[in-house]
Design brief:
TIM Barrel; 11 helices; 294 residues; alpha/beta; 12% strand; binds zinc ion
């Protein structure tokens, strides 16, 4: 059952979409949960370690169904180029088995056959790709205008693949530099038509940076990690400045608690129209899945 959406839609329900989730085969899921638990024990309050979800597609899909979600977007991450194809095969398999799960592809900027891999992902029905410049290339400062990333953005734009990027840049956390957020803001101008989502409201650990240029830009921002770690007033201010048509609900399960983030989202004092947009309509439009409304 849908809770609190409060906005009638065709069919009587407004879909909710989680635009940021990870699922793993059972063995790797155990490792992901162990990583999360270790970070929590180390005092990393950023890890919500109290979810019932175990990191598998089965558990996540059951949770989405229980909560009345239309879709959850699966984001595999390739730390090394050789992992790309295996991860994409796994993601294809689980998203075919669970049609509520929408596939983003794993990609790595060092792949020799980058363009052919992206073309293959598009042909297989993948809707976008996930990148993580810090984990994939050790980028501590903004890498977005470096040639290896530019060729990836260009190919994704040409193929109509959405790019979701993580926003961890440790030097920026130390220096409080807005460079990565500002570069992100400029990407849609550099590649007109490129659809890009900046995870964690655009600047995890460095949210102050996003006020410079990113807010109000054409970049989509997802809410994962922001709910619960930012003051509610700050989240509201970001939504207001950026526009509720470009903010997307996301949980980052199993690293973030799906349950708690959904609760926090429903507690945000926003209008029913804003909640419907952020809760799912924006992601459906962005991914061309508006038929989820019917
Ligand atoms: Zn994530």
């Amino acid at each position: 059952m849908l809770r609190g959406m409060g906005m009638p839609e065709p069919g009587g329900l407004t879909p909710v979409v989680d635009c940021h989730a990870h699922v793993y085969p059972p063995e790797l899921a155990k490792k992901a949960l162990a990583f999360r638990e270790q970070r929590r024990l180390e005092g990393e309050s950023n890890y919500d370690g109290d979810t019932d979800l175990d990191g598998t597609a089965e558990a996540y899909d059951a949770w989405l169904e229980r909560e009345g979600f239309a879709y959850g977007v699966i984001l595999p991450l390739a730390m090394k180029p050789h992992q790309v194809h295996k991860l994409n095969d796994f993601t294809e398999k689980v998203t075919k088995r669970f049609p509520r799960l929408l596939p983003f592809g794993a990609i790595h900027p060092d792949l020799d056959d980058l363009k052919a891999t992206l073309e293959d992902l598009k042909a297989r029905g993948f809707l976008g790709v996930k990148i993580h410049p810090f984990f994939q290339k050790g980028a501590t400062m903004s890498p977005f205008f470096e040639p290896i990333w530019l060729r990836l953005f260009e190919a994704c734009r040409d193929l109509g693949l959405v790019v979701l990027t993580c926003t961890v840049f440790y030097d920026e956390i130390v220096q409080k530099s807005p460079r990565a957020a500002n570069d992100l803001a400029r990407l849609p101008q550099a590649f007109p038509g490129l659809k890009i989502i900046a995870a964690h409201l655009g600047a995890i650990y460095n949210w102050g940076a996003i006020h410079e240029e990113l807010l109000g830009s054409e970049v989509y921002l997802d809410l994962s990690y922001a709910l619960g770690f930012l003051e509610q007033g700050t989240v509201l201010e970001i939504i207001q400045k950026h526009g509720d048509d470009k903010v997307l609900f996301g949980t980052d399960t199993p690293y973030g608690s799906a349950e708690r983030n959904l609760e926090r989202f429903f507690k945000l004092p926003i209008s029913s129209q804003e909640r419907a947009n952020i809760g799912g309509l924006n992601t459906l439009t962005l991914l061309g899945k508006q038929e989820g409304l019917r």
